[in-house]
Amino acid sequence: MSMEEDKGFEPRIIGFLCNWCSYAGADKAGSAQRVYPPNVGVVRVMCSGRVDPELVMQAFAGGADGVLILACHPGDCHYKEGNLRAAQRHTMLVRLLGQMGVREERVRFDYVSAGEGERFAEIVGGMVAELKILGPVRPMTEVAYGGADS
Amino acid sequence: MKTGVYFCRCGTNVSEKVDPKAVEKRVLAQNPDARFAAVDFLCSEEGGLALAADIRESGVERVVIAACSPREHEGTFMQIVSGAGINPYLMRMVNVREQVAWVTADPGRAADKAARLIEAAVRRTGRQSPLAGRRMEVCPDALVVGAGPAGLKAALTLAASGRHVTVVEKSPAIGGLPVKYEEIYPSLECGPCMMEPLLGEVLHGEHSGRISLMTLSEVTGVVGSFGNFRVKIRRRPRYVDTVRCIGCMECSAACPVSVDNEFDYGLGKRKAVYVPFAGALPSVPAIDPAACLRFAGGDCALCREACPVEGTVVFDEAGDEVEVTVGAVVLAVGGGSSDLNAFPELGHGKVPGVFASHEFERLLASNGPTGGEILTADGGRPDSFAIVHCVGSLDARHKEYCSGVCCGYAFKFNRVIAHKIPGARVSHLVREVAMAGKDGQTLYRRAGEDPNTSVIRYRGIDDIRVSGDGSGLSVSYKGPDGSEGSVRAGMVILCPAVTPGPDTAALGGIFDVSLDKEGFIEELHSSTDPVRSRIRGVYAAGACGSPVGIREAMAQGMAAAGCALSEIVSGGFLDISPVTAEVVRERCSGCRVCVSVCPYKAISFNEEDKTAEVNDALCQGCGTCAAACPANAMRARGFTNEELWAEIEGFLS
Lengths: 150, 653
Hints:
The complex is a heterodimer of chains A (150) and B (653). Residues 1-5 and 142-150 of chain A have low confidence and may be disordered. The longest helix of chain A has 18 residues, at 82-99. Chain A is built from 6 helices and 4 strands. The radius of gyration of chain A is 15 Å and the shape is globular. Chain A is of the alpha/beta class and 150 residues long. Chain A has a single domain (11-141), classed as Rossmann fold, CATH 3.40.50. Chain A has a 4-stranded parallel sheet, sandwiched between helices. Chain B has 653 residues and is an alpha/beta fold. Chain B contains 17 helices and 32 strands. A 5-stranded parallel sheet of chain B has the order 8-7-6-16-27, with helices on one face. Chain B has a 5-stranded parallel sheet with strand order 18-25-19-20-21. In chain B, strand 30 and strand 31 (611-614) form a beta hairpin. In chain B, helix 1 packs across helix 5 (107-127). The longest helix of chain B is centred in the first third of the chain and has 21 residues, at 107-127. Classes of the chains: A alpha/beta (150), B alpha/beta (653). Chain A binds chain B through residues 12, 14, 19, 23-24, 26-27, 29-31, 33-36, 38, 41-47, 49-55, 58-59, 62-64, 78-82, 85, 89, 121, and chain B through 69-71, 95, 97-100, 102-106, 109-110, 112-113, 116-117, 120, 534, 579, 597, 599, 620-624, 626-628, 632, 636, 639, 641, 644-645, 647-649, 651-652.
């Protein structure tokens, strides 16, 4: 892939945000008018524990270049421990997706509290920048040649 | 299926950055049948009326509101949509203000993101089904376990609101610890006097008709859940008829038996037919079958003969087990204290003159074993005291936490000792001093001003040795820098850590509430939900939840009653949200993964048809079970896989 093509590439990211902390954190970035790249389509779930690995797989199958799962900080989960389940599932997902040729950087799990608008914006900005370097998902190729950008 | 997309300009908040025309073009290109309308302020009264009218006239079946955050106005629009004749769960909000207009620099890309998010919502609503909540019958009555400050305050608050309350108390008397203490921190108020009005209200006040008091009773089992707990209570016989008894205590005077009184921590004696202490309420003695000669096979009937009211002493009274149905449960069984046997060097139980603080309280009480005199075992009046704070508290090897109440009563002792034995010297050995609160400092300041009082900081409890010789007691310690020191005293008082009580674990097991790492009943949230347990409808108040003083225990009792009143509203019905999990039984393989991941114990396993079952009254709709189910047999209503997938697909299209 040439550099010119890469420049125009805008990754599409599905962001699963828990209702109580991370979604509120994203809203906080909004009320602070903190500009960040518009690449993330937020899917609001009540709890990050709702994020079924199958949904993440489907997002990639449907053309997403990345998936972002944001949860309440450990100990802050509105539903007590859903965020910890989400963290466990993420570990599993990374390995599973790796076997299918999807790089670890494409599925990010992190914690954003209701007050952390700035953190939310930074996470989105960082992920978009990283995916721009990686380029679109090309399953198997990433594994076979050690990465999309190599 | 016709979808109405209503785009709120929010004045210019949204439209300044996201061009409604550009969005409309995109939406209609993807959904030619859709209706698109841009409105100025959808959340305003006129906006809402216009929205409802348009929904009715245009005949849309699904509604997408592109406006502010659903956290702001989802409830508003659910109501409007519902008023317009559409099931509110067929509506979806798109957050084009906080998550598009306010955070996107480029207008073209902002319109693109808004259009994608709207497409996601259009596809999602297409997969959504109408949902309806359920009305559940609930029992408005409540159970309170424990008749100390927290439990009684909860019971009275509930009864005053018209609820029937069953109060279960293990011991023969009510009132908890404060009725045993004569002068209470911080104002040195008399404990029994302070509690008397509360106990009077419970026993014969305006609302007492709604309080069923069961002393000598314990909860033995529970089935059911929030709104409908069926609780089994075992009542031990008192052998004295509480209705006939006039409280004259002639029976007790006639009883020939004398045993250690556990209510005085063994410092005093009681009869086999007894009240725990003078003034205990209800003022009806109980026969202790373990001590009574008659129950040991004798034919003593001196108490019955002494009783002026025939038929009051009933040797053949049997215990019974009753079942009550209640909607809510308040656990208020109090706390305990560190076992002083774990600190052998402190001499408790071995060196005469060493007392635990609760024992010392009984020495101070006029209805205690010494009639309120501070006396050592040999009858002498000590002229000096050493009070060892933090015994087991602030110590990683025992209890890491500060028990919070000890400094308060320890500096109270200072005042009481000065009153009773003027000129007595008091040495406080402390690790830290914690006297928070608006009136905490007064006693501490006074102690500091008292020339007979000294406060000495020690390094660790394991360095402290208490030893006795003929002339008194010696307490040796190490200071924070390791330097050795010692004080002499005629009496040593130990302040043990406040711990979970002896019954907390068993009771927690019966009600299935979880305990924290220290063994206290775990709160739903330590800051925002301190009296709710993790089991819906079960609340914890007082020292069974954490070390607290009387004031906090009372406040928590009221708070727990408030929770019960607001969750189990009167009228006997409760509306349950439809956004809960649901088992698709034909898909369920019975693996029980869902049962193990549910944080609310809302899922149980039906042994008969070998499938999972959701109790929607307990389910909070987090969806963790749906994500965990390997067979897709668990549907998170409102957030089903199909709905979320449609949303993902819509954004990516």
